[in-house]
Amino acid sequence: MAAAWESAMGGDDGGDGGGGDGDDGDDLAAEWAAMLEGDSGGDGGGGGGGGASTARESTRVLNQDEIDSLLGFDDDLDDTDHRSGIQAILNSALVSYERLPMLEVVFDRLVRLMSTSLRNFTSDNVEVSLDNISSIRFGDYLNSIPLPAMLSVFKAEEWDNYGLLTVDSSLIYSIVDVLLGGRRGTAAMRIEGRPYTTIERSLVERMVHVMLSDLSGSFEPLSPVTFRFDRLETNPRFATISRPSNAAIVARLRIDMEDRGGQMELLLPYATLEPVRELLLQMFMGEKFGRDSIWETHLAEELWMTDVELEAVLDTQTMSLGEVFDLKVGSHIMLGAGPESSVALQCGDVTMYTGKMGRKGDQIAIRIEGRYEKPKS
């Protein structure tokens, strides 16, 4: 094949010096020339270079935008948009908050309660709005918190679990400015890169107490619960209340005070909401989710046909353990019941009827005289 390649490349210059294999060499040279023209666009002068160029063109490098789109981390996507790529596969195991319809009603009630309570708290015109509700893994949420921020850890007393309330820096400075008498129309002065002072932490903590009280009020029609303030953190690592892989619900609230305001995020792990999950599955308040009246009627009819065992108890005696061990074949136990004594009919440990013992044919029978009435103490 090497000889044929040399013959093909030198066929245009060398005339008729090919020898006896000239016809075969010409055919093979024509075949190679056609292959090179198909790969390199017809450039017959540099066959080897054309093949290397084709190999380089087939190895395409993705740019950053294409990589982000493949992984599903496109910044242009809104939080409400559907994710794609690998990110969609990773989040496919998350439980959507839309499966808890009553949760939207709870958050809507929270917005209305906070609008009133924050107006009384700040003596200013406060507007509270619910931006969105989303499901997210707890570890991803901690990594997405824009710092600096204050993270308030609170506990649901009746549910024996925790939640997280995040207040961003804009809302912190706005609350401090409003409560300390800042003038309207002037933006709150921010000094980045410094820790929050004791006064700022104290004022934010007071606002958190107001918000937790409203959160308890929003859940009250569904299930009474008390949210108790636990601690205030500025480092997300110290506000870990759940495993990073656990799913949680995040409600983003927007608080506007004329030209000031900020965002507040409420995070409730699914483990925290588990005690009231059945109530959150309701489509409307007071609904018994999953109730089927036809099935209930059928079940009630079948219960009337259920076979139960009744035991006739002639007498009960209390004996010591030693007397029980002394019993042997042939021992007699004297019963404290006569022929006219009442016999108790029991179903399990529950006494249901009383009657008299007699005989019907060859069988011992009990004639029921009435229902058993428990003696009044």
From TrEMBL:
SUPFAM superfamilies: CheC-like, Surface presentation of antigens (SPOA). Residues 301-370 form the Flagellar motor switch protein FliN-like C-terminal domain. Keywords: Bacterial flagellum, Cell inner membrane, Cell membrane, Cell projection, Chemotaxis, Cilium, Flagellar rotation, Flagellum, Membrane. CDD domains: FliM. Its main location: membrane. The keyword Cell membrane applies. GO terms for biological process: bacterial-type flagellum-dependent swarming motility; positive chemotaxis. Residues 1-57 are annotated as: Disordered. It holds the Pfam family FliMN_C. It is a peripheral membrane protein. One of its GO terms (cellular component) is plasma membrane. Residues 39-52 have a biased composition (Gly residues). FliM is one of three proteins (FliG, FliN, FliM) that forms the rotor-mounted switch complex (C ring), located at the base of the basal body. This complex interacts with the CheY and CheZ chemotaxis proteins, in addition to contacting components of the motor that determine the direction of flagellar rotation. This is Flagellar motor switch protein FliM. It comes from Varunaivibrio sulfuroxidans.
